[in-house]
Structure formats: C-alpha cells, structure tokens
Specification:
homodimer; alpha/beta; Rossmann fold; 6-phosphogluconate dehydrogenase C-terminal fold; 2 domains; globular
C-alpha cells in the first residue's frame, strides 16, 4: 500500500491522517501548528523528503490561501509524487498546481464533512465515514493520480463522487458556501434586534447560524476562493429572497417561497433515503471517465475499487 | 390552583397540556384532530363549558388562521375566563381578541420552543424546559391575566420574557420567521443544483434547511401572520445579502459579512453562557410593568413568582 503524506493537520488534514492510519496505511505529515504525534514530521520539508523516498501520495490539506506556498515546497522536495488535496474549492488549486508543478500527476479532492471546531485536536478518524468525497474526474486528470486519490477517499471511509472541477465548484457554491453567507446575514440581522431578540432565539435561529461558530478566516478562505460560482449562487438567492419580499409586500402570500423550500429539502431527504443500485464500471474502458462523471451528475457515488473495476451506486 | 383548558392539541398545545399535567395542574382540552386521551374533551364546546364551570385559564393553541373561529367559541361559552394563547405572532391575536371578546382579561403568550415534527404525538411535557416564554406586558394588559399566563409558563418549565406585543413581533420576525424564509431560499437554490449538489450537501446545508422539514402550512401561518415586521427583517437581510454580493463582485472580499455574522452568533453564545444575577420585582408597584419590560429588553427573564414578588434574572 502506498504511504500517504498529509501537509496541514487541521480538522480535515488531521482527520485524513487519523482515518488513513485506521485503514492500515502508513500515514505521516507535517503542520505549521505544533502537533505532538509520532506520525508528524518536524517540518514540511522533512515530510516531503520522506514522501519522495517512499513514493507517497501527497495530500495538500491547508486553507486555500496557503496552498501556493505548500505547492512550492512540493515542487522543491517531492515533485514526482502523486498529488491530491482536500481543499474546499477545486479550480484555484488546479490553477496553482498547473503553475507550480506543470507535470504533476494530480487529481483534486474534497471530502464533504466538517464541524465547527477546528484544529488537530478536533480531528477524528471517523469524520468521513459515509460522507461524499469528490475526486476531480476531468478528462485530463492522470489516471494513476485519480486512482490514488479515490483509494485514499475510500480508505478514509468516504464514498467517491466523480465530477469535474467546474461542476464541483458550482455545486459547493450552492450547498456549502451560500449556507455560510446566509448564516452570516441571519446572525447579523438577529443580533441587530438586540438582547431581547437573542433572548428569544430558539432552534431555527441556532440551526441557521451554527456555521458562524466556525473561525472566520476559514469561512473567508473557502467562500472568497470560489468567487465566480458563489456570485452566481448569491444572485440566485437574492432573486428568490427578492421574490419573497415582493410577494409579502403585495399579496402577503409566501406560499411559492415556502413550498419550493419544502420541496427542495424533501429532495435531499429522498436522495438520502433512496435504495441504491450497485453496478460495476470498467476503469480500463477508454470512456470510463465519462461514465464516472455521469454517475456523479446523477447523484451517484463509488463505493469501492476491485482491481480495475469501480463499484458505483446510484439512487433508484 | 386554577385549571387550564387548552384549545388545539398540536405540538405546542399538546406540550402545554402535558407540561401542565406534569406540574400538577388540572389540565384538559380539545382538538379538531382526533386525540385519544382522558384529558381531552370530545368538542371545543364541551371543553369551554368545563372551563367556565371551573374558572379555568383558557389557552388558545391553534395556528393563527384558526384563532378567530376559536375565539368565537370562547366568546359563546366561556367569555369570563382568563385568556392567553401560545400563537407565534401577537398583534393579530390581540386584534382578534379585541374584536371577539372586547372585555376579555387577556395576556398574550408565546413559548419559544418547537421541533420539526408536529401533532399531539410529537408533543412533550419537557418541550419548554428552560425555554423563553413571552408574556405580553403592554401597559393595558389586565394584571390577573398576566399573572395567570406567567404562572402557566413557569409551571411548564419555561422562563418568562416580559415584553410588548410590538417588540415581540419585531423580535420574532428576526430570529424565528426570517430563518424560515432564508432556509426556504437556501433549500430551493441548493435543489436547483440538481442531484450532484444534493449528493454533496453536508452539515451546513442540512442545518441551514432543517426548518423546511416543518409542514408548509404551519410555516406559512406563522410567517404570513407577521407580515409587517417580517417585511422589515427581510429588507434588512436583502440589504446585507446585497452588500455581500457587491463586495464579492467588486473586491472579492467577504470579511465584513462573515465577521459581522460571527460576531452576531458570538453574542448569542455570550448571552446564553453569561452568569445571571437574580433580583426581586414587586408586582404591586404601579411601575412594575415598566420594570418587567425593561428586563425583557435587556435579555432578562423571570424565573419564578413568590407571592407578589417576581424573581428576575439578568445576564451579568
């Protein structure tokens, strides 16, 4: 089994290291924050030297603003290793890889799991169990890098969602970054009501603002890094909120808004609750990546790899 | 102890009945939905006749659109009973009471607790434990009705937040009704991303849309009933979201939005985590209601009643 070298040991990187260890992988890493653990090398340089010696899969697990610096180190010390990342936006990472390591064998990754607490101590080996983990499946992604990233995701307990860089960034703008912006708007508007309003705040306000307990720097790195797709999602939300405003002011009726929201949430429940049909995908097929992308678009995931066959699952 | 007669036995009314029973009160009620329970009278008319005989406190616990019909029945069968309600908006209920029972001894109530499930079977005797329960403390509220409503809230395990009808409606627009509108907008925008987006949806989307699992009729009754204050809150949210949009489009920076959101949520945590100082309020003081309202405005609550003294608690 190929070792894994995780650069950045916050909540996500730390959880990757712990989950890969649980799966029996040789896993090591490095962090700018001090972490005392036998798997942690004293410096990023030392970790990368070990990665180069052992032909490890290198995982970039720092917030987006720090990615470029880390990639420079990778280019200097382990340029030939297979490379992936777990950063929440994919196009800027792909661009940075193309700039710093134009010959890298790289597939992007993004595990869709998290919690409000951050840092190594918050990291858990079970964080990704059953979660979606995107592996970018653009046509030009090297097959060996794709395979290594998918194997890591599966070893960490996740299910692989194959999709393109562009589709990933558009989707997460809607379901991960927009929720943070709306939570910020809600928290500000609630707090503007003063102590009385906050004293009355119950479940709906607490749930709707929970992600605002996350460190602002992390939220900013994520949201600002996905500027174009997030702008489109915010515009769509502005349109819907404006329509609700207009309906409330004119007829007083909010049925269209509330029923569409209820239906949207119900679609999520239906997708989660659906029986899934498993089927094999031959990875040696020249059109395998197209099949994989279609699976992702349809809400499907990969459950495991068996030799040259990927086992996909599609909601019935 | 005065008996309590609960009209409407959904999640909130049912929980009031169960919580009052737990506190040792004689509690009975009626519901349009069939409920099999020894405390439930066969009809609203029968329940009100019993309330009139036993001089019970009558609690209106139906959704706002049904309030007027229930008040007609109260006017016909128990016009002299003390009256309160647990409806989520206060001005429309006060208006309906003024119309149907102009001489009623009425104080409005609103327990700030709930969950997505609805109906008698979802009702819990512990639903209100530690929750805020608004009792309207406008200057013209009859003192005996106020006292009865406050006693019920405390008996149900809640803490009383004294405030005016107007301040209540403005506050809940921000922290209860706006969260539902933003959740609807988020759920719709997420679902518009198709199966891929919903497959990737994790905690931030689930939390941000949870209230959309509530029955749409209940959300509509609540939000549409608070039209004016909700319009103001939606306008504030539109302004903030528009500012975020502008910042993202121009400089790409979201720091002002995210930091304000983080601060707002932190204010909620600070209020909840604060030590509280207890002090007595003499309810026979002619200015007691003013003192009570000031307590509510400052985020304070009443913890208990001891004869003519209310024990207030204010975050330090």
């Amino acid at each position: 089994m190929r070792p894994v070298c995780v650069l950045g040991l916050g909540l996500i990187g730390g959880s990757v290291l712990k989950a890969a260890t649980r799966a029996g992988w040789e896993a090591f890493g490095a962090s700018h924050e001090p972490v005392t653990d036998p798997r942690v090398e004293p410096t990023v340089t030392a970790a990368l030297a070990r990665a180069a010696r052992s032909d490890a899969l290198v995982v970039v697990a720092v917030p987006l603003p720090a990615v470029d610096d880390v990639l420079r180190e990778v280019a200097a010390h382990a340029p030939d290793c297979l490379l992936t990342d777990v950063v929440s936006v994919k196009q800027p990472v792909a661009d940075a890889v193309a700039k710093r390591l134009p010959n890298a064998r790289y597939a992007g990754g993004h595990p869709m799991a998290g919690k409000s607490a951050s840092g190594w101590d918050a990291a858990e080996e079970s964080l990704f169990d059953g979660a979606a983990w995107v592996v970018t499946t653009d046509e030009d992604v090297p097959r060996d890098a794709w395979r290594a990233a998918a194997e890591l995701a599966l070893a960490c307990g996740a299910e692989v969602v194959p999709t393109t860089t562009r589709e990933h960034d558009a989707a997460v703008a809607r379901i991960s970054h927009l929720p943070h912006i709306l939570a910020a708007v809600l928290a500000s508007t609630g707090a503007d009501g003063g102590s009385l309003a906050l004293s009355l705040a119950a479940g709906s306000f607490r749930d709707g603002t929970r992600v605002m307990t996350t460190r602002p720097e992390l939220v900013l790195a994520m949201c600002e890094g996905n500027r174009g797709p997030l702008l489109a999602a915010v515009d769509e939300a502005l349109g819907r909120l404006g329509a609700a405003r207009g309906a409330l002011a004119s007829t007083g009726g909010l049925a269209a808004t509330v029923r569409a929201g209820h239906d949207g949430r119900q679609q999520l429940e239906d997708l989660r609750g659906a029986d899934r049909e498993e089927f094999p995908i031959d990875l040696t097929d020249p059109e395998a990546f197209e099949t994989l992308r279609d699976l992702g678009t349809a809400g499907g995931r990969l459950l495991r790899l068996e030799g040259d066959t990927a086992i996909g699952a599609l909601p019935a």
